[in-house]
User: Fold these one by one.
Assistant:
Number 1:
Amino acid sequence: MAQRNLLTREERERLFLPRTDHFSIIRNYTLTVEDLDIIGKRRGPVNQLGIAAHLALLRHPGFGLRTNSDIPDAILNYLSAQLGVAPGTYGAYGQRPQTRTDHSSIAADYLGLRPFTRADVAHAIELAARAAMRSDRGETIARSLMDNLKAERFILPPPDTLERAGLAGRARARKRAASEIVAELGGSTLELLDALLINDPALGMTPLAWLRDMPGSPSTKNMNALLKRLQFIRDLGIEPAISLATTGFRFGQFVREGSVAPPFLLADYSHNRRRATLAAAVVNLEVKLADAAILMFERLIGGLFTRAKRGQERRYQDTAPSVGKLMRLFGATIAALDMAEETGGDPLVLVDEMVGWHRLMAARPHVDALADLAQEDTLVLATERYATLRRFSRNFLDTFTFKASGSGTNLLSALDLLKQANGSWGTQLPANPPMPFSNRHWSKLIMEGGKVSRPRYETAVLATLRDKLRAGDVWVEGTRAYQRFDAYLLPRKAAQSAISELPINVNSGEYLAHKSAELDRRLRHFAHQLRTGRLPGVTLVREKLKVVPLQAATPPEAEALDRKLDALLPRVRITELLLEVAERTGFLSAFRDVRSGKEHDKPAAVLAAILADGTNLGVERMANASQGVTYAQLAWTQNWYISPDNYEAALAQIVREHHRLPFARNWGEGVSASSDGQFFRTGRIRSGAAEINAKYGHEPGIKIYSHLSDHFASFSSRIMSATANEAPYVLDGLMLGARELPLKELYTDTGGASDHVFGLCHLLGFRFVPRMRDLADRRLGTIVSGANYKGIECLFGQAIKVGTIEAEWDDLVRMAASIREGTVAPSIILRKLSAYRRQNKLDLALRELGRIERTLFTLDWLEQPDLRRACQAGLNKGEARHALADAVYTNRQGRFTDRTLENQQYRASGLNLLIAAIAYWNALYLGRAADHLRYSGIEIDETLLAHVSPLGWSHIGLTGDYLWEDASFSGNRGYRALHDPNGRLRLVA
């Protein structure tokens, strides 16, 4: 039977061995006056040094000077220096075993410590169980156990005893948590939970497998399938409050396990563990199904109006020839009337002669038809698909309980009216139904012949519901993505301390006074510079700013150096590269078993699973192409060890080590980053986040929005819809994926720029630097009159509404503090704010604040060519990352074939991890290649190294058979030999 371990070798070293770094030695092993007094009572320097060693090791790590163990030289030297004795005298200590025993007792009595006995094991297990209620990580449990035993004045038992107690405590915590959850469930509910694992012939699978199989592509059939699953779960009668029956971590652990455990495995669990896992899984599934159903409702209603708009556009295109003829006819008529005016002739006679009265009369029906087409509202066109809407609208409204405040209450009344009318098709709506529409024209359109048109009314109400759900004006309790807007923010009292830590002056009066003065000063200076021609490449032509594009900043010598260094890089298979990066960075330790927190005993299986995601090869084909890894191992690994949290932790480890590489300093200070979206096709089936964006063709697809540091470390990526605005995702990578990086500046393309992002970046302490391609169409903002700035009056739009900022200041800084604390993702806030058809006050305030920052940035952009050049260089790095992503993600023609957004995100995470690993490995060996050139007597212009990229892949074998058993790397931190095409390479020492 395989031995079960709580800790890895590295964790044991961290916990059980004395620390010998300079700071730790001073902190843990400095002797006090009282220590020196009791030590001085021993006879001779040998005994004095011996009892000092006992005292030191009883304090840290807490085991004392054990039999057959010794004290590290660094600690011994420090103790010797304090006692004024030679370290070598310690060699004679303990020749008489009883002396060591006596000294151990004396030191323990002096420190007030007592030995750990067999009778204390049960207490240790309970201490470990309490720690395990908050974490499954072995190191966390063992550290907590050690700290508590030391606090209770115990001499720590042997490490093996601590590990066994930790394992037993973790098992007890799991059983305790399961019992706490099951105790909240009734007998009938327990029977229904057990039935989830029994195969249902009508479903062709177990109910649990059916519930997990959530359809993703938007269709009425799939919508009803989601609603049916949601109702099935609600019929089980498990309240979401059951999550409070045990600790949040323990319940979350049951959720994580219940999300991936196959039914046959759950069936083998003990009663309580199985039922607790199923209960947690059901609670989580209810939330996921509710979010999925509302998201599909959004997409179905949006598709209804999108198709209506496209149909209208097609009709416009079809009538283009007729419009041309009518315009020419109209032009000829005007010419005839103009001649009548000049000559005094009869207009009707001239029109008849020059145009033909019969031709005008014949054109009248076409003119009327075009006028009707131009006035046709998308609501009317969308209602043509009312039968499609009716296939799911009744079930949807019956499934959810919507809540609202303020203006949203009128919408709730309209929804209640529709529910009542859903009793039968012939039910008439009242003459004056609630009109919750922001589009006032709709209130007129729904009236036909003096009566309310139910198809138009219902379509308009559901479209309004969609908008208000997206904005948070209307919410559904028990969901994650559709909560009340205020629920995403920190409570007002709790937010105060977080607000005080924001990198701005949080006093609104002082802040706005300072900004007003700064903006006025900068605008006056810019106006003077522009008038006097002191801005290189910037001119004002016909009241529009023109900026001369900058020339490429990469010198030919840099390209030659890049090729020379690239030629020296070792030729390596992707399997070998991953194994080496894992050895150097330790990122594999992040991939732990979802259930036990244990590291995988076969690293190649984890690397193969990552490669299956990142190359889009898939588990089955990866197993077929792999040596030393079977399909069963891969499937098991992907199920239990590959998770979003594990991917995130592993990526952070690689990025951290990447930024520590000496060669990375050539690329910048590590304080800037760039972000951009990359499109990937998904084939003909729309699923997950897939949408059709005409910019990329007529096939559906998704975008991966990624962030890249100036050191070329790809630290964040996430899936987004191909049609979604990129701006809400700009800050996600900075706040959620780069907390350990000292980032201060972010470059984006024009698509990521918006006033809201400018404002939020500023509140969070980041400098936002988008590439300003549409500069001529953007207006500057000013707080005072634009007439004060001579020569540039034409560049200003509306005055900045400082009063709006001041009125909403408390909520603005509360929102920023909530994002900074990790309470909510920036993209959620920005999407909610942008969803309002009529902007709310907070949205307006953030926009006005962003206009101030955008104006200041625009002045920087125009006055500082170096800023424009740095932005372009940052975005070029992102383009190089996209090229590497295309090269890695090649299987299945580079298409995302996964049906669900969750699985698509797995692919994106695997791809990003591979890119980060390749960039780290390349940067490591680029440094060695540069050192080789220097040692070979070749002079290198150090400034050219800033233009060298670690995102090349020609030297890496990305495809073929994956020979994991042959992919070896020396574990002694050695290096691979540089590439030597001529056999004359001098190896770097």
Number 2:
Amino acid sequence: MTRYFIQRPIAVIMFFIALIGLSVLAWLNRPVSLLPDIDVPEMAIRVDYANASPEAIENNILKPMRESLATMQGLSDLQSTASNENGLLRLRFNYGQRMDLAFVEVNEKIDRLTDQFPADMSRPRVIRVNYTDIPIAKVQLIPTDAANMIESSRLAENVIKKRIEQIEGISLVDLNGTVDEQIKIIPDLKALQRTGLELEAISQAIQSANQELGGVEVKDGQYQYYMRMAGRLNNAEDIASIPVRINEDKYIPIRQLAEVKTAEEKVSGFHFFNQNRGIVMNIHKQPQAVMTDLMPEIEKSIKQFKKDYPTLDIAITQDQSIFLKAGINNLQGSLLFGGLFAFGVLFLFMGSFRLPVIMGISLPLSLILSFLFFEIFGLSINIISLSGLALGLGMLIDNAIIVLENISRKRMEGLNLIDSCVAGVAEVQGALISSVLTTLAVFVPLIFLSGVSGVLFFDQAVSVGIILTVSLGVSFVLLPLLYRLFFKNKKDFKKEDSRFFKSIIQGFEKSHHWSFRNKRLSFFMILLILPMGIWSFWNMEQKGLPKITRTDAVVKINWNEPIDVIENANRSQELLDNLNKQLEFSETDAGIPQYLLSLENAELQESLIYLQFQSDNAKAEQLTFLQNQVKKSYQKASFEMENAKNAFDMLFASEEPYFRVQWQDPNLKNANPESVKPALENFPCDNFQAGPSLEEESSMILTIKQKELLHYGISPEQIINQLERVLGNYKISELKQFAIITPVVLETDEKAFADLLKTAKVKNNEGKSYALGNFVDYDWGNRLKKITADVSGTYFSVNLEQETVQKNPEKLTEEINQWASDNSLIQKISGRYFTEQENLKELAFILLISVVLLYFILSAQFESFWQPLIVIFTLPFGIMGAMIVLWLGGSSINIMSAIGMVVMLGIMVNDAILKVDTMNRNLKALEKRDKESVYEAIFSAGKIRLKPILMTSITSLLALSPVLLSGGLGAELQKPLVLAVMGGLTIGTFTALYFVPLVYFQVRRFLGV
């Protein structure tokens, strides 16, 4: 087959040109995303109900929804949390569930429950959880005049938002911090008292003046008209002029009874940028959009907005495309340095400029051809698939080096050009195919991992498989053809090795003879790697992601006091005032945000602050200072800080506690702190954190005096209505002008609660007025801040940290079960601990399958049952070598280092397979197989494969080394991977050169073959 392609160069070249054209089209068509488009089997339902308590939201809204949704097919878990003014219900389904159909079903069930929900509550929002919903950037809009928030909000919602959404590839612009206009009626209670009027008089006057005819038609001959009321209310001045009747002959305008003004509506949250109140836009992209193309378009639009709207200061923050750019830069760096070092190594070992040029053509060509298969398999260009390509590049270089070196060796043996190309490919063809299959045998089973890990490994495994398969095609078809074309006019082919390699082979010959003369010492030196690697493993930290130098952080402060959102914002800004100039900028969301896609169960007393510092040292110093300030000034406040979440955190971090104990008390009627505490007094572990269902807050308990109501002839509804008018924003009516609706609300001035009860009046059936305070008692007390529930109903919970659980998890579980039994509780234990245990068992089983597949493939290649074991036994040495270098490099066991080990094992296997294959070929050529002849065959194989093994190893090591010397996000993410590959590859090279021949020789002697 190789001879056929070599003898038809024009046809092959045209074929590859056609493939390149198709690949370029596929590359231009492929979506570029931060992450793969993962159909995450999760959904959330947000409930927003102003002025509602957790009990009201739980009983009236969340409980009916849970009962209705619990019967859904494929539902694996259902959790809800009710807090002040909002609630959140999260649904988790089994992987493989059709989430588009589940989304429709959830909405249908909510629509059926609409009649049971409170009439003044907006419809619950159903949100599909998707990791691609991470905003690609945030746009900050800060009015230059703080008084222009209403106009700025309208501009943001009606103009800027729509113009950004018109950019091709943008799916949604999610806003927070906007505010609407409303007309406030602030009654003068003393003026009302002097005129003998009640609050209802103002409300009734406005409602009467704002009447509207509904659907009245008037015919005038052949014409038909729709009638509308003249003199509709249009603004605050119109309302202030409305007359209120005092008696039969006297009227007084509302302006004499109340202050009427246009103002901002009452909000439940604020957004600040650099301590200036403003609006933030979260920009979300469509799954098929190219992120790297979107950001320049967004920046271009922002530049135009700055010119068009000088009343706004506009800035872009938290640009997530930097992670994708880091992945692309890493791939480009791997390709560039891999090519340069491959060029240098080939020249040193082969002494020719032509071979490095062939390599320089084949590498980018293989990469371009890979994108054609991306199109076929429907893969997007994202961080995961790019990492697969980057991992495959090292193996691609190895295949090319092995083929080129073997062709050159055949020419040195005296074959003509075409026969050298054919024989050189044929000799290593089986070994290279086996090495690719063994690499895939390690990667492909990982896609069967459950959860998001399996979905992510699919992209990586397929991309590795693609580039390795393409590299085989290029190595077997294009490389020999290029070799013939480059060397066909070269008559004086150099038939000896370069001086550099001659010096290396002399050292190898001496060391190889020494290792066979001192077999026991050689085995001891190699086996010493195993305990050193195990020791390194136990002395390294284990974490999900490598340590990354981050100059940003997120601080979450809950004041744990019944303050309003204005006080919350003031406290947050005062804290930021104390930070020094090392803070580049800050973003603050105080209270409950307006984001449509928000999955946070936020509170009015909570602030989320994003901080960007100038350096990592400044970050550590300022966060410590900020935490001390909070502890000093606000003893009740809770303070949490963490790195700002990026794409990797969203993928691998989990909000689920490490170990959660939840229980239900069948005898518990009143969910208050005092009724829950007795069960916790004898909890078997002291080091626990109270779950959200055990958090307390101060509250006012209001009691209506029923006897007084009966005595004075006043109904409870009158008391409740009057309390709503006096204490809250009571909506009277609304003004409509085209698409703008302005609510008219009644708002009392901010007095102490006791004074309001004395001042406000309520009338009985006879028209007599009495102070509202005569019919109401109030007291202060604590109540539970949140109500958590699952399918079985409401529950309480505590969380345990990893250090507490890992001491003796089995004993702790038994003690918790006994505690629940002693207190007559229904308990359930869950958390990441159990998930991780299941994942480890699953991973161990899948790796076992990988080793079995590896053995089957090698058995078929070598036609032997014992030779594959030699290759497999080299793998632990590579892993231990990776552990040692990771420990020496100050790294940890994490996702990236684990991926590096998988890559390293693929490269190690290649070297060992080539060595065993060559030893087998040499032994087949022997007429007699005595001890000396077998040794000579093994030694000859070592010399034959020394050059490709060293070239592939040195090229890979040199190509990876720049990552260790560079900085930045991309380098820090790749450093553990690089250390793992370099450590394993270094040990793997020595095992291929010395351990494999020793074991091969000894096993043959033991088996007598």
Number 3:
Amino acid sequence: MSLSRRNFLKSAAVTALPAAAVATATATATATTTTPTRATPAAGDGSAALHWLEGGVPAFSSGTTLGVPWPRGRHPQTPAFALTTEDGQPVPVQSWPLAWWPDGSIKWSAHALPANAGLSATLQLAAVADATAPAAAVTVEERADSIVVNTGVIRCSVARRGPHVIQAISRDGRDMARNGRLVALAANTPDSEAANTVQRHYDSAVTAVTVEQRGPVRAVVKVEGKHSADGRAWLPFSLRLYFYAGAESVRILHTFVFDGDENTDFLRGLGLRFDVPLDGPLYDRHVRFTGEQPGLWAEAVQGLTGLRRDPGAAFRQAQVAGLPCPPIAQMAPRVSSALHLVPAWGDYTLSQLSADGFQIRKRTKPGHGWIDADAGKRAAGSGYIGGNGGGVAFGLRDFWQRHPTRLDIRHAHTSAAEVTLWMWSPDAPAMDMRFYHDGMGMETHAQELQGLDITYEDYEKGYGTPHGVAHSSEITLWALAATPSRERMVQIAAAVQTPPQLVAAPAHFLASGVFGGLWSLPDRSTPAKAAIEDELDRRFAFYRGQVEQRHWYGFWNYGDIMHTYDADRHVWRYDVGGYAWDNSELSPDLWLWYSFLRSGRADIFRLAEAMVRHTSEVDIYHLGRFAGLGSRHNVQHWGCSAKQLRISAAVYRRFYYYLTADERIGDIMRELLDADAMLEATDPVRKIADAPPKGQYPARASFGTDWGSLAGNWLTEWERGGNPRYRDKLLTGMKDIAAMPHGFFNADRAGYEQDSGHLHNMTGDMVAASHLNSVFGAVEIFAELIALTGHKDFEQAWLQYCTLFNADKAAQVRALGMPHGGSPVLRVGHSRLTAYAAWRTGDAALARRAWSEFFDQPLKPLRTLDLHGPTVLNPVQEAEGVSTNDTAQWGLAAIQNLALIGDYLPGGAAK
């Protein structure tokens, strides 16, 4: 552990405030009123109760990893941890730290369990002297040309160089899969029939392999490279291969970054391909595709059922069950002598081109026609090919949600079948990433602002590029000793689509004091509180339903939600400029994650998980001129010219990272650390004529949408034990804001130095405020900074801002000498700033004012209307006046106000 964490406070007040989640509110400014209080669970004895997210006990587990928070000072050193089931049986566990408190104690720890371990309704995690080791540890052997990982059940050889990512996966000394490689199909036009179309096939070329974990429970190998053909190397990829002790599977997280020219590079297919050695009779080779859960399509390469002549019941029953048939000598002679005339079906395809339709086809071999085998709505995205010696099951997570997808099995009648999991199906039209309009004559900022005024689209030529956006997919491969039963195959598919996930309880999260502590457990102790809790549930249920009803699915779209509704057309404004895809605008991500923390609900977690996977990849640039920045809301995720820190911010990613220890999200948050270097070239206010000039400073930065986002990035890096340079930049900015004459009201637009992190007052004695500055995670991050550092001057500046933003103009003039000029459009969302100030100062009048702001209009439950018939394409629910901006900010205000000033809610005090 770096000593720099212990020295974090050297530039701040030495005495840190207690973490907000576990402290009784204390006055930090002169106050004469009663301090608001709230009940919080005790921190406990340093142990944590864990449970499976979806409830109950999973049918099986291929290994799982989770993160657990701890109160400050609870574990001053990095301890060993023990895990036990509800009946006291020890469970092997591998543990490591994810984050530290400023005093060096553990803030978050990660824990990995072996395959099929911990299958108990509840488990108990506690610090001990020695952890329980697995019966057979996963091992990693580094060779000159490969990395060999052994789970105790399977061995996987990962190539260090060349076209093959996975050389082989073996079990019991037999290769089950070989030659695992990535494939990409691309063309120079989107029209495959055009005369000038040139199509190329690209294979993976591995350039680097890194062992990130070595066991004993969990091993992680990262593979990096590019797709290559004809002297061109592009589409950089990374694969993380996850291995767990005792597992017969490997989980693969695949990521690629689009670094082509969207006008000439059109992907026509993207997949993972490998070979499966086969032997034995063709009638003992089995193919499986999972359909809509729990459906299964199961056939043999050479069928023995339905023939004119019966081979015998034992043969038919064995083949249907996926078991080896009896010796051929026991087959009816009229069948055995004519088997060469029974077709063998070598090629199979399951294609999911939309969220609501898949098709299964098969053929005997290339050069012959395909026949339709079956069809359905939503395939679970798993398959199997194998024979008497076993085979390989494979699955692609979110298969129908991220359409167009496809599963291929080829040459199953030969000595080796070829399997391809297509993340972009070759059946689909080419991946066309070109901007959706020609600019419509907008060449100057004045013209662009006119366009912004009419369609809310912030267009600028050359800015709507996808160059640098990414996409991640999750794949699992099983090396099985025998063809799985029908029931087992369905269980495998379920585990692919919804991987078993362990979590701690909401009370434990709250008691640990993480994520600012601006939340409480659901409380329905009074009618007033129950009404707000019910409305929180109602609004989440509405959006969860909209994902399905509005088909917010697709390769580039799944995980995002829409911004604003069009009541005239009864659709979300999917085609109207900045009103379409939300791209984290006004923090729906935070609303979902805080909703999960306080409730522990699996459905909220899964929606938030899909959102973070999407927004972290698609809405952020990972290379190129905009690397580290995100794109504001638009018809296309990358379309808006507002490339901003407020979208890419780690504040939206860190929840998932700490709850799951996901390395890819960890990588992305580190990509953001120097994104402030982009502020000069992509000045967020370059189109605003009356913005203060940069003058002598390299860049201009808003304290909320810019510096607040950077603060979240740097805070996360500091607590992860990273480079102390970012801790120092964080402290420098806190000090500079606090030193300005009017604090945050001078930092609405400040001069910024990227190298040092200094912020400078550019407005003199004038003051300003923006309604956007607090609504992209600044409230939450600043609460953490105050609790962690005890920086009194920064806190006082923030409390002043929180108190005055929603205050009447007379109060603003008394405190600042003039009104701050901020827009009142997000008054309800800003009520949580007032609540925070009331909580920190103990000001009862301020607490009552906060509730008045929250109820600026009487609480109106979200009312939905069922629409059907010719008014709409499909039956849907519509909500009057719904807005994602308002929903996210209302939800955050409701959660935080209940936590901080719940006792002052009119009618909200418990009797």
